[in-house]
Design a protein that fits this description.
The protein is 29% helix and 18% strand. It is of the alpha/beta class.
Length: 121
Amino acid sequence: MPDKKKVLIINRRAPYGRSNARDSLDVALTCGVFEMPISILFADDGVFQLIGGHQAKGIGQKNLSANLAALPMYDIDQLFVCAESLNTHGLTTDSLEHNTTQLDQTAIQQLIQDHDVVLTF
């Protein structure tokens, strides 16, 4: 049986306003069902997906927190966050609801090279 492709999903969009964030998590969970090795990188406005306490009902959308909380059940525990994006938005890893590994640009380039498939949302 051939090795499964390593998939990196890069989230660059804010959690609401478009379907990008929800779509990326749906793809991650689907890949997880098939036991594919998945990593997720949150960068740019995508770092806002990791902050807790979203009040999505007020804008008529479902809260993404349940989808993020489900990731470990699908063995998706390789969550990364762009250090530059955190800094740009005045955030720290302490302000995030989910455990992530903070990466600089050099480490992000290496992360991308280490994966067979890279999907950007």
